[in-house]
Amino acid sequence: MPMQQLPLDLQIRSTEEHGDFIISDCNSIAAQWVDRWPEWVGQFCALNIAGPEASGKSHLAAVWQEKTGAVLLGNLDEKLANLGNRPHFVLDLDKDSPSETGLFHLFNHTREIGGSVLIISTEPVARLAWQLPDLASRMRAVNLAMIEGPDDKLLRALLHKNFIERQLYAPENVIQYLVARMERSFAAARDVVVKMDQLSLANRSQITLSLARSVMERGQDDFFKGKPPQ
């Protein structure tokens, strides 16, 4: 069943590299901020998209890169000398830990040439314990778009999407069973599908309610919330 046939009234945004991004109440503000560029208000033309693991931050960053031609800055400290006149940058603080001096120079560089910075992180950068007072003040000036945890509607869509990406068909009763019992998180929606795929391969079985029960019973610490499966 292709993504266009998901039985949910949700918007879907696609990129070639990162696949489909499903827009719901918990992430719509972040998507709107990406679309709003270059009208990012404030002292610096900068945005921080913060949210939990597997919540789509990298996808939105990829959308913004396609829109702006921004450079993904891994190993920022090594690249500072070669920023040149490039105006737009993406920094993933979940994967890279640049020095505070490097970040300070990056902000100064983009302000001087009229550029912009998109930072993705788990925690908002304004709340992190920066040691340089000037950098801390810059981080407090960055626009913030938070991605919250998924509601049931988005959780169902994520499960469908993750099964489809693995070329698996999951009956609706399996989706309903998982949504009623699993942890409300993007990472859990990813991981429970991985575990079901692995178990179905090991058992040479299809995705069934019985298989879902087995996964939940084996992985209660990771996924189980609420009433035990019957």
Which superfamily, in CATH terms, is the homologous superfamily of the largest domain? Answer: P-loop containing nucleotide triphosphate hydrolases
Query: What is the helix/strand order?
Result: EEHEHEHEHEHEHHHHH
Distance between the termini: 29 Å
Rounded mean pLDDT score = 86
Structural class: alpha/beta
Number of helices: 10
Query: How many strands, which pairing sense, and closed or not: the largest β-sheet?
Result: 5 strands, parallel
Kindly state the number of beta strands: 7
Strand order of the largest sheet: 4-5-6-3-7
Task: Work out the helicity level.
Answer: 40-55%
List low-pLDDT spans.
Answer: 1-5, 220-230
Our count of domains comes out at 2
CATH level-3 fold name of the largest domain: Rossmann fold
CATH level-1 class of the largest domain: Alpha Beta
Radius of gyration, in Å, reads: 20 Å
Question: So, CATH architecture of the largest domain?
Answer: 3-Layer(aba) Sandwich
Morphology: elongated
Descriptive tags:
230 residues, alpha/beta, Rossmann fold, two-stranded antiparallel sheet, 10 helices, 7 strands, disordered N terminus, disordered C terminus
Description:
The protein has ten helices and seven strands. It folds into two domains: 27-146, 3-Layer(aba) Sandwich (Rossmann fold), CATH 3.40.50; 151-223, Orthogonal Bundle (Helicase, Ruva Protein, domain 3), CATH 1.10.8. The chain is an alpha/beta fold and 230 residues long. The chain has a five-stranded parallel sheet with strand order 4-5-6-3-7, with helices on both faces. The model is unreliable at 1-5 and 220-230 (pLDDT under 50). The protein is 45% helix and 14% strand. It has helices at residues 28-36, 57-68, 76-79, 100-113, 133-140, 152-165, 172-181, 186-203, 209-218, 220-223; strands at residues 11-15, 19-23, 46-50, 71-72, 88-92, 116-121, 143-146. The radius of gyration is 20 Å and the shape is elongated.
